[in-house]
Amino acid sequence: MVFRTVATSAALLVGLAVVGAVAGPQWDPVPVADHLRPATSSTAIGGVDPDLAVEIGQVGDYEVRETVVTVPLDGTQVEGLLRRPLDETGAVLADRPGAVFVHGAGTGRFVDAFTDVGTALASAGVVTFVPDKRLDTYSTRNRDYVAMAADYQRSVDLLRAVDGVDPERVGVYGESEGTWIVPVMQAEDPRIAFTVLVSAPVVPPREQAAFAVDNYLRNTGVPEQVFRAIPRAVGMQLPGGGFDYVDFDVRPWLEQQTAPVLVAYGTADPSMPIEQGARQIIADTAVRGDDAPVTVRYYAGANHGIKQRVETATGRALRLHPDFAGDVATWVQGLPDTGDAAPRVAGDSPNQLFLAAPVPQPRWWGSGDIVLGAVLVGAGLIVLGPLLWGGHALVRSAVRRRSHAPSPRLAPGLRRALLVLSLGAVATTVALVVYLLAVARLALDYERDDLVVQGGWVGVRLLGVVTVVAGAVVLRRVLDARAVRLAAFAADADDEGRAPGAALVVARGWPAHLTFWSAVVGSVTLLVTLAYWGVYQLGI
Predict the structure, then answer these.
(1) Which of 192, 262, 345, 413 has the fewest CB atoms within 10 Å, i.e. the most exposed one?
(2) Are residues 8 and 63 in the same domain?
């Protein structure tokens, strides 16, 4: 019995491994072979005309006046914070360049966003304006970057009319998700004098998400088997529909750029393709041959927001890289001379490991509704049988009537194995979800914990193996019981010459039948789902 159970378990595990391998795409990112080499480690901006040097302010040169203003939009309005540099008398400086800030995905209010860089640029002589993001048309499920560009354009128009701003020197500063919006704005309004693209993904959101997840998982040290989940999670249509923006391609807009572009990345940012992005911006802005010079700067040890972790009196904190705001201020104020000044690429040496590329699309499980539905149906079926059996027992007890029909029951030795199979399938599914959430938390916090990452994965897979062994026991007991019944029939058929139905081999009474089949079908559904997400990988 033990040998047959082991052999059956091995066969089931191999079968699940094969199903998991063929049910969805694999993950095999292409390494970066040709790395971008900065001309110098200094990020300083060159090309400043000596005759204009007196007009190039440095961070901290001026006091800053802050004013909250209202920006009218179609159907609503938002507030924004205007920061203007003041001269020694407290008057607003005249004929200054201005910059409108476009939010990334993690920010939406001016009170929280760009407070450090917006103030620093203003103190160097650049008027800055940070509007609130329009949130009534923006959600996790639905975003329209072209429509968002039109909304932010209202802030550009407002800033051009502000006292002290030179309307021909107003540009746009975008960070992260905002860098998909900024090129649309400049293409639609060639009067925009410059664009600053900070931590720009460049590739479509789906590709960037897969790239970021891969990097985060590598930094966290997860087992290789976990990576198979990347294309299956990122490549599928998410449950409930929407998310059309994940395939937005900014490159056609980059090809229409006519104004100088400053590109900035932190070399400690694992979420962005920092080499590929810079190369692509340089290539795309040169497609039409228009005058759109690109300057690229890499900041050592800086993260996604060009910030570094520093020690303070109260502990570690994130601070803007000390050179970043000054470089941006010099570049903006020195235009057009600084736009095409050498070196084009400078700063710390980036080290992008893999290319961001189109994400393989799942075929059979390409819909998140199907994936979620499979889990819910599987768990629901496991619960359904016992509930109905229990309800049936309560009804029989309540009416206090003896029935000549035998009580429902399962074949000897089957109940315990079926219980382990059902509970194991549910427990392994829950454990996988908990494990992935724990890994995500570690990844986002840039932390490693081998006990959680490695030990947790071993724990999930052991639960999965125990569940499969229970399934093998169920299968063996069913086959053995059936063999006994068939042997008995062969020796002595019943009075009517008919063999007993196969269903009677494992259960007696409809509650037992229903419990058995709902538990088996539900458990198999969950096991196939677990195989799809890599729990049963055997190197296939």
Answers:
(1) 413
(2) no
Which phi and psi (to 5°) does residue 318 adopt?
A: -95, 130
For 472-508, the three-class secondary structure string (H helix, E strand, C coil) is HHHHHHHHHHHHHHHHHHHHCCCCCCCCCCHHHHCEE
What is this structure's pTM?
0.88
Residue 316: which CATH number? 3.40.50.1820
For residue 42, tell me if it sits in a domain.
no
Q: What's the pLDDT score for residue 485?
A: 64
Identify the band that residue 369 occupies on the pLDDT scale cut at 50, 70 and 90: confident
Least confident of 269-283, 373-387, 462-476, 497-511: 497-511
Cβ burial of 458 (10 Å; 0-12, 13-18, 19+) is exposed
Cα separation of 497 and 504, whole Å?
Answer: 16
The percentage of the chain sitting over the pLDDT mark of 70, rounded to a whole number, equals 88
Which amino acid appears at position 164 of this protein? G
Q: Which domain holds residue 393?
A: 2-24+363-532
Phi-psi region of 306 (alpha: psi -120 to 50; beta: other; left: phi over 0): left
**51, 62, 112, 155, 483 from 179: Cα distances, Å:** 33, 29, 19, 16, 68
448 within domain boundaries: yes
Please give the structure tokens belonging to residue 263.
């590109």
DSSP 3-state of 345: strand
Other beta carbons less than 10 A from residue 494's beta carbon: 10
The number of beta carbons lying within 10 Å of the beta carbon of residue 283 is 13
